Design the sequence.
């Protein structure tokens, strides 16, 4: 049994955050916080310990998700996965994030992504196949999914 | 016409005809003995004058359009031709210069250049406007696309949350089927607009996502899939009905085809084949399950949905007994579209 993940949710849509929280917990992980703006997210990054942060690009204070990812990247205390309906907004270097789960994802897609991330964080590289709708950043692609 | 004598100092005029006097407005005595430069003025092009000077120095002929001044100060465009005249021994005797007033031609040339500049400016201006409009449209499209995707995500979330609160198994099952259908739409939208050409949809990539997702979601690892997918591009408006149809057929196979066999196993194989023989787009969804001999009529919702979508797509659809199992064959017209030209 691999140790479960502690997850931080940075998402401005309450409905999506609620559902994401349920799915994360059903999969055996825990949610350590939910932030809706970049300021809230940064404060939470400072005060909590998370393994993974799911970060939407568009938050209540604008397209500040990349900013949040960079902040987390400097702190180096958790890994970032973008979760957005607008993957084109993500810079080429992904601000250090693992990758992106494109919205709309399917429930199964998200469950698979959680398993994949659990393996990737606890026992890298992940054994499961990359789930549909999940795109790795170039940096993580070379480590987690090297072309054989 | 003018003749000058280069053997005298400063190459003076030694002969003028009446036509030149009429053109320039001078009297004969005023010009004889003078160098031709009195015809030039402030607006005369220096480079043209240099060109003349050079030709005279090198004793070769030259032809230029030059702006000259009359005695009264008015200007005219002079098509000037100068040629050296030598004797038998090759000694330079004279320069012969002929003049022609081409002010009219110059004027129309100027007008044409001005018109051309004006047109070019107008075209540039219009291009800028169109580019700005396109930019605005693209931003709007992205905005709407973003909202559609978010809303689809919210619809799925609502269904899942609702279904968590429901005890009745049949109701939950029906919500699960609804979620599958909405997620098929979600998978279309996730894939839509991924290429720059928003009107084209790569149906093979979509099918791979959909089938993998349905199979893993079913949790039935004993059921394998065989995907034989040509890269096929269809127009975006066909994407949704095609996606829904494939979703119905694959979920049907998953739900109905693989009953427990006498040996207690439920293993099986689902196959999807997509091809585009000339001008057509063909889809085959097959399974090696129980077949449809026992299927009850066609009053059920899934079947009606499949048939209506087929009508919308002008597709022929046929259920074949594949012994064992079922093979559903769909064929629809599809204008040939090269994958890869999605720029
Ligand atoms: N691949 C298949 N193999 C065996 N039986 C099938 C297959 N596809 C369809 N059937 C039969 O055809 C019937 C009608 O299918 P249909 O999709 O209309 O309804 P359904 O799947 O039972 O419910 P829903 O309306 O939610 O789709 C099914 O109940 C099943 O008996
Ligand atoms: Mg059905």
Sequence:
């Amino acid at each position: 049994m691999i140790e479960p993940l502690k997850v931080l949710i940075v998402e401005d849509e309450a409905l999506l955050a609620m559902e994401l929280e349920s799915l994360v917990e059903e999969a055996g992980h825990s949610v350590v916080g939910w932030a809706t703006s970049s300021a809230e997210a940064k404060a939470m990054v400072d005060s909590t310990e998370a393994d993974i942060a799911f970060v939407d690009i568009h938050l209540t204070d604008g397209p500040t998700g990349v900013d949040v990812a960079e902040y987390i990247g400097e702190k180096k205390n958790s890994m970032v996965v973008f979760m957005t309906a607008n993957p084109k907004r993500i810079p080429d270097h992904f601000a250090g994030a693992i990758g992106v789960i494109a919205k709309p994802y399917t429930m199964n897609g998200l469950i698979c992504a959680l398993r994949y991330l659990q393996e990737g964080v606890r026992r890298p590289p992940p054994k499961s196949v990359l789930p549909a709708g999940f795109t790795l950043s170039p940096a993580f692609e070379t480590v987690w999914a090297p072309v054989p | 016409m003018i003749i000058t004598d280069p053997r005298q100092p400063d190459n003076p005029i030694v002969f003028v005809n009446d036509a030149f006097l009429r053109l320039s407005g001078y009297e004969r005595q005023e010009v004889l003995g003078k160098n031709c430069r009195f015809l030039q003025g402030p607006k005369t092009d220096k480079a043209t004058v240099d060109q003349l000077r050079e030709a005279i120095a090198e004793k070769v002929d030259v032809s230029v359009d030059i702006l000259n001044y009359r005695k009264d100060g008015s200007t005219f465009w002079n098509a000037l031709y100068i040629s050296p005249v030598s004797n038998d021994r090759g000694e330079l005797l004279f320069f012969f210069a002929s003049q022609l007033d081409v002010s009219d031609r110059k004027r129309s040339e100027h007008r044409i250049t001005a018109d051309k500049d004006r047109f070019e400016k107008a075209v540039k201006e219009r291009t800028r406007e169109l580019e700005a409009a396109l930019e605005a449209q693209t931003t709007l499209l992205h905005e709407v696309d973003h909202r559609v995707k978010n809303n689809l995500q919210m619809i799925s979330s609502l269904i899942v949350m609702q279904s968590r609160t429901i005890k009745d198994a049949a109701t939950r099952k029906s919500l699960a089927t609804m979620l599958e259908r909405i997620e098929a739409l979600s998978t279309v939208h996730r894939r839509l607009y991924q290429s720059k050409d928003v009107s084209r949809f790569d149906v093979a990539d979509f099918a791979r996502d959909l089938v993998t997702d349905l199979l893993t979601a079913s949790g039935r690892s004993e059921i394998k899939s065989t995907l034989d997918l040509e890269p096929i591009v269809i127009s975006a408006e066909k994407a949704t009905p095609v996606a829904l149809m494939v979703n119905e057929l694959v979920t049907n196979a998953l739900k109905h085809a693989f009953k427990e066999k006498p040996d207690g196993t439920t293993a099986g194989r689902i196959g999807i084949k997509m091809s585009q023989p000339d001008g057509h787009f063909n889809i085959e969804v097959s399974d090696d399950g129980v077949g449809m001999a026992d299927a009850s009529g066609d009053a059920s919702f899934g079947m009606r949905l499949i048939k209506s979508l087929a009508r919308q797509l002008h597709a022929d659809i046929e259920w074949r007994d594949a012994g064992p199992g079922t093979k559903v064959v769909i064929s629809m017209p599809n204008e040939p579209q090269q994958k890869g030209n999605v720029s």
Remarks:
- Chain A has a mean pLDDT of 92.
- DSSP finds five helices and six strands in chain A.
- The beta strands of chain A are 6-10, 30-35, 52-55, 79-84, 99-102, 134-136.
